[in-house]
Amino acid sequence: LQVLAYNRHTYATVSQRLVITVIPAPGGDPPYQGEFLVGNRNVEELLPEAVQEMFLTASAGVWDWGDLQIINITSALDRGGRVPLPIEGRKEGVYVKVGSHGPFSPCLESAVSPQSLFRCSLGQQPLASCYDTFAPHFSIRWCNLTLLQVWPSPTTPGPVWGSGVLEEAGGFEPPTEVPSQDLLPGFLVTLLVPLAVAALLCLLLGHLMCCRREGV
C-alpha cells in the first residue's frame, strides 16, 4: 500500500510504502458493533495507538465490557460530511467502529431507542442512562450512534474431490443418439413467410405509385 499525504499548512506531499498483513481475528469478528461519531477530532488524530487505547477505555465505560477492539476508523468527509471552516479550530469528525463479544449496555440501547431518535429530530439531546466517559477528550455525537449485530454467515460445504480414477462399474456407455428430425417445414416457414410479406409490400407499393397517379 502506497500512502500519499500532504501538509495542511504548507501543502507539501510525502509518500510512504506500507506492507500490511491481514490475518483473521483469533476469536472471530465481534458480533456486537457500535459506531461513534467523534466531532472534535480529525482522522489522523485517532490513528496513534495511544489515542485508540484512550478511546477504548472510554468506550468500556459506557459498554460495560472490556474486550473492546476498534474495527474501523473513517473520516466524516467520506460519509458526506462538509469540510469545516478554518476558524475556531473546527474538526472534520471521525466515525469510529468498535466491536465486542459482549452485548450492548442499557445506556447504548437507550441512546438509539425511538424516544431518543424523536428527541434528536427535535434538536434535543438523546436519552442516556449513564455517565459520558468520553468527555472531555472525545465529543461524541450521540444522535449519530449506530448499533449493529453481525453474525457469521453459514459456510457452504465445498466440492468433494475424488481420487481421479474411474470406479469399476462397467465399460463407458456413450449417450444415446438423438433421433433425426424433419427440418423441412421449419425451413419453408422461415423462407416463405418473409418472401410473401415482401411480395405483398411490393404489390401495395406498385399500386400506390402506378394506379394512384393523377389522371389515371
UniProtKB/TrEMBL annotation:
Per UniProt, the keywords (alphabetical) are: Membrane, Transmembrane, Transmembrane helix
Q: From which organism does this entry originate? A: Sakesphorus luctuosus
Q: Which residues form the Sarcoglycan alpha/epsilon second domain?
A: 31-147
Q: Name one GO cellular component term.
A: sarcoglycan complex
Q: Which InterPro entries match?
A: Sarcoglycan_alpha/epsilon (IPR008908), Sarcoglycan_C (IPR048347)
> Where do transmembrane segments lie in this chain?
183-205
**Protein name, UniProt field:** SGCA protein
Instruction: Provide the taxonomic classification.
Output: Eukaryota, Metazoa, Chordata, Craniata, Vertebrata
Q: Name one Pfam family in it.
A: Sarcoglycan_2_C
